[in-house]
Amino acid sequence: MKLVKSLLLGSAAGIAAVAGAQAADLPSRKAAPVEYVRVCSAYGAGFFYIPGTDTCLRVGGRVRAEYTVGTRYGSGQDAYGTRSRGRLNVDARTATAYGTLRTFFRYELTVSSGFYGGTTNGNQGVIAPGTGRNTGATTASNLDLAFVQFGPITAGRAQSFFDFYANDFGFSTLRTADSRLNLLAYTATFGSGFSATISLEDRNTGTGVRENGAFGRFTGTGLVLGGQDFPDVVASLRVDQGWGSAQLSGALTQRKVLSTFNAAGVLTQGSADEYGFAIQGGVKINLPMLAAGDHLFLQAAYADGALGYLGWGGQIGPGRLASATTANQLLIGDIGVSVLGNTKSSTGWSIVAGLRHFWTPQLRSELYGSYSEIKLGYLAPAGFYAPGAAIRPLDPKEFIVAGNLIWSPVSGLDIGVEVLYTRTELASRVLAVNNAGNRIVGVGIKNDDAWAGRLRIQRDF
Q1: d(Cα 408, Cα 458) in Å, to the nearest integer?
Q2: In the CATH hierarchy, which fold is given to the domain comprising 55-460?
């Protein structure tokens, strides 16, 4: 029996050896290598290597649903509105011998109705009651950002290097500098969080109403904008450290005024270059002693001939002006009237404050506001003032304050409500406007209070 078992096992081993030898002589086909997507941890969460390259990519975005209701001067100015927005972010980065090469773009599509028809100040849109109730729906597309960063160079459409508190809090915007525009900038870093930037910026491409826009008229004397010979020059000095951040920035802008004549054909203004400027200082203070993630913004700015750097890109206050009228365009101009060759620029200043506090890791509140004053230096045209009103520059003063409560039940999801209050005071009584944005003859107002409320549901990914 043992002999039979040994013979059987020996035969099986021999057959296996012969079969293995024959198989080794046959041609074989290897499977093509599979290239898996690899996680890239060099630039934070969400990045992965583009297969076959050393470039890290992150694709993200946002979907926002928003609903608002508000009251403006006169019952005809009350309205509601809705808004839906979709955003796509694409961020690609590559490590090079010269530093990180980064390309980034953000594209948005927005559908708005009602109260949102009167929003100003660009992408985020401040609810500015009084621009006329728009009951129709509008669809807008916006290339919000598109830039290349290579070492110290930033080129393309990016956040202005003048900006500091760029409406970081809340559902609405304040009177503050916040613009994405075409620029070319160089940033030098000095260590310990210090950096300095010099930037050439095209304000004509900004997200807000450009501040070098229309110019007014006064007793037949006109100011005609003749363009610019160079873009605005912006410089900033910034520090980012564990306690927070601080920045000091300044801007210089040119305005070319062409020769104009009055109705009698007499020369009232020769060609000349006018210059405006703005300065701004801000600080962001982290407050971990209150709660993780808490911080406070404080900022102040002054502008002479460049009111857009204060956020004055739209109408003067709620309940007064039609957004498309010559009168409205006059009031947002930076350079005032010219009388016998003397040009006077508009000046203004603003202060901004904002606080974010986490009640729990999922529940937070934001309280923010701004106060600003501007001196226009010139008068509104005939037919603008209320009957019996003193004819003087309007020189508006504006106060905005808002607060919200936001719940984030899961990461990336915000559900919040907000209340916004705005008060504007003018130096003289002007005609009110109706819900179509037309001035009402005989009805004059000098100050106005406006309220707005919002509900927002937003998912970032």
Answers
A1: 10
A2: Porin (2.40.160)
